[in-house]
Amino acid sequence: MTAAVRMLRETTKSDTAQPIVEVRHISKRYGSSVEALRDINLTFPTGQLTSLLGPSGCGKTTLLKIIAGLLEPTGGEVVVKGKTVTGPGPERAFVFQDFALMPWASVLRNAAFGLELQGIDKKKREETARHYINQVGLSGFENRYPHELSGGMRQRVGLARALAVNADVLLLDEPFSAVDEQNRRKFQEDLLRLREVERKTLIFVTHSIEEAVYLSDRIVLLSPRPGRVSEIIEPHVDRSGPPDLIRRNPAYLDTVEEIWHGLRDYAD
Ligand SMILES: Nc1ncnc2c1ncn2[C@@H]1O[C@H](COP(=O)(O)OP(=O)(O)OP(=O)(O)O)[C@@H](O)[C@H]1O
Questions:
Q1: What is the helix (H) or strand (E) element at residue 30, kind and residue range?
Q2: Residue 71: per-residue pLDDT
Q3: Whole-complex ipTM
Q4: CB-CB neighbours of 245 under 10 Å
Q5: Which residue's CA lies nearest to atom 9 of ligand 1?
Q6: Which pLDDT score, from 0 to 100, does residue 5 have?
Q7: Where are the CATH 3.40.50.300 domain residues in the chain?
Q8: I need a labelling partner for 213 at 20 to 30 A (CA). Which of 48, 67, 255, 257 fits?
Q9: pLDDT-flagged residues of the chain (< 50)
């Protein structure tokens, strides 16, 4: 184990930051045969980006949806800002893998949709949506429709919508999986920048070790089904330089290597 990788127990530095989300003894079964998650205990510190990483089928999306309140756990509870989750709530926004855009609505309406659901008046919600459309680099595309956009642009609309509702916690389910490598990198950089500006707590599902290390304050490694927390890793990567330099940084490369060794046995 190199110094770049630290396995943390629940009492270390990150956990002294106020947790905004607490996952307590969560288990999930689908029917009688599939045990997806077993006794998951995690805290998510305010303002940090935590990735959920692990082999296919280990329950990453299931856990994210339980935190979102979109799925009910079989056992245990999720507490967000001190309250037990019983369903979706305004302090959490979910960014779906396929961005879940409405094909018949413009970029502006899609980005404002969360606010529309909250009953915010049109002028106010469009003003807010325009601000976030600008933040994600889509100014000038307000009146376009999803089919007129690239995958990367659609993904940005999904993100603008999540940001516009001003949730404290953004839950992102592999938001980069449907775009090409170039867009993926660009979007990763935007996400790092947005995290600085917006100071959100982000919980992020990914398959990519590189992506997790590049973006995360903490990485939760889940074991194969039934998913359990196998390690919590805090990559100490200096992200102050340009992206290409970060990806050549020894701490970054060592951490990728360490996680790869840990996960190699689970590879399909
Ligand atoms: N609705 C469902 N009914 C039955 N089994 C399900 C259902 N949803 C998920 N599962 C199973 O539960 C397990 C966990 O699924 P989940 O999608 O959470 O894993 P994941 O780690 O996100 O997978 P991947 O990395 O492949 O996206 C898998 O074995 C999956 O087949």
A1: strand 19-30
A2: 95
A3: 0.97
A4: 12
A5: 62
A6: 42
A7: 13-91+167-264
A8: 67
A9: 1-16
